[in-house]
């Protein structure tokens, strides 16, 4: 029986490759910070982590609402109810009073307004969840949160 040299060589290579052992060493933790990846995703939570959760003692203050907020509320209530419900908070941020409107769902932006109703930025939401990038320090630097409106429909 005559066997081709190239056929014998191919069979030897295939047999050897199929029987060889391959070790894969995937790092499970970075020795510097304990994370497997520098941008590790936290474990899921049952609460929506994008919408701020007011403190139990956070008062609902409807007395200091500028007129533009009432107009904005009417506009929101003229549409279908959002899930989670829309909310407005008053904070101090970078030395000024600001109003923060929560996001209404996936890929939507939250909005930060000044006292005249001018949009300052979008702190959260969008495709990345990090807003428009114009106020990345809002969550860290805001103080004095007061809930001024929540959609209770």
From TrEMBL:
<protein>
    <recommendedName>
        <fullName>DUF6970 domain-containing protein</fullName>
    </recommendedName>
</protein>
<dbReference type="InterPro" id="IPR054243">
    <property type="entry name" value="DUF6970"/>
</dbReference>
<keyword id="KW-0732">Signal</keyword>
<feature type="region of interest" description="Disordered">
    <location>
        <begin position="38"/>
        <end position="64"/>
    </location>
</feature>
<dbReference type="Pfam" id="PF22311">
    <property type="entry name" value="DUF6970"/>
</dbReference>
<feature type="signal peptide">
    <location>
        <begin position="1"/>
        <end position="20"/>
    </location>
</feature>
<feature type="domain" description="DUF6970">
    <location>
        <begin position="74"/>
        <end position="151"/>
    </location>
</feature>
